[in-house]
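Expect sequence, tokenised fold; for instance:
***
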Amino acid sequence: MNKMMSHFKTILTHKCYVFLNCQKAGLFWQGIKHDMSKFSPTEFFESVKYYTGTDSPINKCKKENGYSKAWLHHKGRNLHHYEYWIDNADCGGKPIKMPYKYALELVCDYIGAGKAYMKENFSYNNEYSWWMKRKENIAMHPDTLSFVDLMLATMAFENSNDCLRKERSLQLYEKCNKQKE
């Protein structure tokens, strides 16, 4: 029961941080409904089983089992995950450019997860360091990857999330928009 309550609290903490970032970005409704699937039985109970409090339970489940039913469920229902935007898996997979509002929510999600798991050790520099290690091995559309990279680098450089504001984030998204959709 303790792991269940702790996991529930972590979800709410994450959702709160994502909501605050989404609100700053002008994505009010996305911030409200962000990650609601985490409360579904498929995602919630597997995540309770693998809960540590310091990292995503999905990562621990994948290490132990080679896959996660919670993750398969989650990424197929949440458009802010770049994995949702991969098609033609039978042919190796083709990353599709994420629309602006979902790419921006992904940035909010990364910051929210960093704050929820790193707690008092969170900094935009630490989040950017995490991203620099992670980005090398992901199947994300190059324009989306450039946008996420630029947003997180800007936050680290400025030690602020002010670049989330719509006018500025849209300019950065367009700057990274090299290929036609």
